């Protein structure tokens, strides 16, 4: 099969590999599309080095194929699998989605939402799941700010917060204002013109470049700051130190300062399927790249030019 093969951090190329064999609790997928996000760039480069230490392979990538977000058709089931059968259309995550075939654990899969293309479905799992988990506990009528609202996680954050009945302010750079408005934000702040002001019950921070003290000033006394990610470029921790600082400070303040580590689970993807089928959430796919241009897709996301989601189609 064709696959974007990655034997070491920092380089990958289209190559040929044998079709993998599903083990216990796994299925073999004929991949139709694979999502791209900042995490794909982190796994390609092995930077910041912290990503290597959290289970993706210290010296070399554990998965010889790049890509995690996946949609496709089940072609074979491994021992013990009762949840899916050949022919089922699914979406979720796996190790090695940039390939014609991939093996995925059933615990990381859900049925593809009715009415979505495979490309749209592959844009959902990691970004949508992260936004959903970051917005847990939001009540109707609360004020929510989404920073980085025109990015992958943020584009779901705006829609999910709206679906929960919150008043949503999306914060982004100029080129993403139209997108964020179209996603249903009640207010859109172009931070190149004016920084966002106001008082929020929850801030979902997907941009990661504002100081904690500034963010805390924009929260109610019992408000919640969810730190999704930061791209400071620091080679060792890549901005994670801000999350550690927040976790320590959280012990001493009335506000909740919560670094998020989202889980890739089929039940989370099922919740997203329900929101999508109800019409509350639609993946904002900006661009599709063929498998042969998968690395260009990763570059496009890393360049910060992407709006919403980017997908590789197989
Ligand atoms: N905690 C978790 O479990 C988890 C899960 C998924 C992703 N993440 C992390 O969360 C962050 C957002 O992910 P994403 O997939 O939404 O990324 P994305 O699609 O690139 O969106 C991030 C947005 O943040 C803004 N931004 C600010 N500074 C940036 C910088 N130096 N480089 C790139 N973008 C910058 C950009 O918006 P403007 O152009 O409007 O400034 C961009 O649209 C990333 O750091 C990612 O690694 C964490």
Brief characterization of the structure:
Residues 10-312 form the Enoyl reductase (ER) domain. With 314 residues, the protein is of the alpha/beta class. It contains 10 helices and 15 strands.
List the helices and strands and how they pair.
Elements: E1 2-8, E2 11-16, E3 26-36, H1 38-45, H2 50-56, E4 69-77, E5 89-93, E6 101-105, E7 109-111, H3 118-122, H4 125-134, E8 143-147, H5 152-163, E9 167-172, H6 177-182, E10 187-190, E11 200-205, H7 212-217, E12 219-227, H8 240-249, E13 256-259, H9 266-277, E14 285-290, H10 294-302, E15 309-313
Parallel strand pairs: 8-9, 8-11, 9-10, 11-12, 12-13, 14-15
Antiparallel strand pairs: 1-2, 3-4, 3-6, 3-15, 4-5, 5-7
Helix pairs in contact: 4-5
The structure holds NADP nicotinamide-adenine-dinucleotide phosphate.
NADP nicotinamide-adenine-dinucleotide phosphate is lined by residues 37-39, 126-127, 130, 148, 150-154, 172-173, 176, 206-209, 228-231, 260-262, 301, 304, 306.
């Amino acid at each position: 099969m064709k696959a974007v093969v990655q034997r070491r951090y920092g380089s990958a190329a289209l190559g040929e590999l044998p079709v993998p064999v599903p083990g216990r609790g796994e299925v073999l997928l004929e991949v139709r599309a694979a999502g791209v996000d900042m995490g794909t760039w982190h796994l390609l480069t092995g930077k910041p080095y912290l990503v290597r230490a959290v289970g993706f392979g210290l010296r070399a990538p554990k998965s010889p194929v790049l890509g995690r977000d996946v949609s496709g058709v089940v072609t074979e089931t491994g021992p013990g699998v009762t949840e899916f059968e050949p022919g089922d259309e699914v979406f979720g995550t796996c190790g090695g989605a940039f390939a014609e075939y991939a093996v995925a654990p059933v615990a990381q899969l859900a049925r593809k939402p009715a009415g979505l293309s495979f490309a749209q479905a592959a844009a959902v799992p990691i970004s949508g799941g992260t936004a959903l988990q970051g917005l847990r506990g939001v009540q109707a009528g609360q004020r929510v700010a989404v920073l980085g609202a025109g990015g992958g996680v943020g584009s779901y954050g705006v829609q999910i917060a709206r679906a929960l009945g919150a008043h949503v302010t999306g914060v982004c750079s100029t080129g993403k204002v139209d997108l964020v408005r179209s996603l249903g934000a009640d207010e859109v702040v172009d931070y190149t013109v004016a920084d966002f002001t106001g008082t929020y019950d929850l801030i979902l921070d997907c941009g990661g470049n504002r100081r904690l003290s500034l963010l805390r000033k924009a929260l109610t006394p019992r408000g919640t700051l969810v730190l999704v990610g930061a791209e400071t470029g620091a080679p060792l921790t890549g901005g994670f130190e801000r999350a550690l600082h927040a976790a320590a400070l959280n012990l001493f303040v009335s506000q909740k300062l919560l670094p998020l580590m989202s889980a890739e689970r089929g039940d989370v993807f099922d919740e997203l399927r329900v929101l999508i089928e109800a019409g509350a959430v639609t993946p904002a796919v900006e661009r599709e790249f063929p498998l042969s241009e998968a690395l260009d897709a990763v570059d496009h996301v890393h360049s910060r030019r992407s709006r919403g989601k980017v997908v590789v189609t197989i």
